[in-house]
Amino acid sequence: MDFLLYGAYGYTGQLIAEMAVTQGLRPLLSGRSEEKLRSLAERLSLPYEAIDLSETAKLEAALAKVPVVLHSAGPFAHTFHPMVEACLRTQTHYLDITGEMAVFEAIARMDKVAKEAGVMLLPGAGFDVVPTDSMAAFLSEQLPNATHLELAFHGNAGLSHGTAKTAIENLDTGGMIRENGQLKRVPTAHKVREIVFSDKPRSAVAIPWGDVATAWYTTQIPNIVVYVAQAPKSIRIMKLSRYLSPILGLGPVQKFLKRQIEKRPAGPSADKRAKSQTIIWGEARQVDQKTIQARLITPEGYTLTAQASLALVQKVRAGGAKPGFQTPAGAYGYHWLLELAGVGEFQIV
Q1: What are phi and psi of 153, to 5 degrees?
Q2: Could you give the CA distance from residue 5 to residue 16 in angstroms, rounded to a whole number?
Q3: Residue 298 CA, distance from chain mean position
Q4: How far apart are CA 305 and CA 135, in angstroms?
Q5: Strand 48-50's sheet: what is its strand order?
Q6: What is the C-alpha to C-alpha distance for residues 224 and 104, in angstroms, rounded to an integer?
Q7: Which of 31, 147, 204, 243 could form a disulfide with 227 if both were Cys (CB 3.0 to 4.6 A apart)?
Q8: DSSP 8-state symbol, 126
Q9: Which residues lie below 8 Å from residue 349, measured CB to CB, with a gap of 6+?
Q10: What residues form DSSP beta bridges with 206?
Q11: pLDDT in tens, 293-327
């Protein structure tokens, strides 16, 4: 078996499993539900093992069969720790598709022990944060002495249940930026700017995206803000949520909101994904105000997640794993991203 895919029957996990088969890969499918795994495994003619992350011996036995795990079961704040610890004990390289800032920072603190074990820990192997991390690396190369980095993206394909639930769990935490090398809490939607993603300016609002953590490790640029394009009405609602954050974090409210998510489709349809794309934008600035901007077009987020995570699996299988905590562009640069189907070239604005 080529790798362990944990969380295989989730929305994104299924996309990864299906694409892996088309690439001639044979993952070992895993997750908690025997029934859901069996259905997927029979459809794709793949092996499977039902494992709860609390079943340490069973998890380690499965990891011992493969060189790398691709962890796709979120919210990752609840799942990354037992998987990473098992990988360190079995010397199995670790990839995941998280975009959760707290997870990036927690795994970064495991850098020393991972190096001692000879294990690579690379979270953010999907849309969070591969294309934006690559943009950060590209801009840093173009403007080596940059002190400020702003990143943004625009796409409208929709969210999966897992992504939406992760967002709900963070409704009461506010925003986050990096200032002078340190993470700093800020109010939700604390900053709005107009960004020309392609044909016209769009309103974009600052969000606590994973690159606020990872772009620092990739580029060492000390001041980082990340934005997403949003309609003005949505931005107003985000600002209003500042006053509701104590309520939004309550257990009963969280459970209610998550139940509403379950009533929606599991994620964007195949047709919606095929017709959608994402535009990545970035700006780097030096102390003397010298500035550079660039754009990059990619497939929509879930398609890119499957493509990028499997490309990173292949790099690990080929012997390209770098022990310790890594970011995608920090480990492999940004050029490999441009080889994926549907990804354009960096365009300096």
Answers
A1: -145, 155
A2: 8
A3: 15
A4: 16
A5: 48-50, 28-31, 4-6, 68-71, 93-96, 120-122, 324-325
A6: 15
A7: 204
A8: B
A9: 196, 293, 294, 295
A10: 227
A11: 999 999 999 999 999 999 999 999 999 999 999 99
Comparing CA positions, the residue from 267, 68, 236 lying closest to residue 164 is 267
Spell out the residues 6+ positions from residue 278 whose beta carbon is closer than 8 angstroms to its own. Answer: 127, 131, 153, 154, 155, 157, 297, 298, 299, 300, 301, 304
Cβ count near 255 (within 10 Å): 10
CA distance 231 to 208: 18
pLDDT computed for residue 203 by the predictor: 96
Nearest to 229 by CA among 280, 277, 272, 188: 280
Q: How far apart are CA 111 and CA 168, in angstroms?
A: 29
CA neighbours within 13 Å on the CB side: how many for 281? Answer: 24
**Tens digit of each residue's pLDDT (9 = 90 or more) over 218-266:** 999 999 999 999 999 999 988 988 877 778 777 887 787 778 877 777 7
Q: Which tokens belong to 64?
A: 């011992």
Distance between start and end Cα atoms, the chain: 44
Cα separation, 106 vs 117, whole angstroms: 17
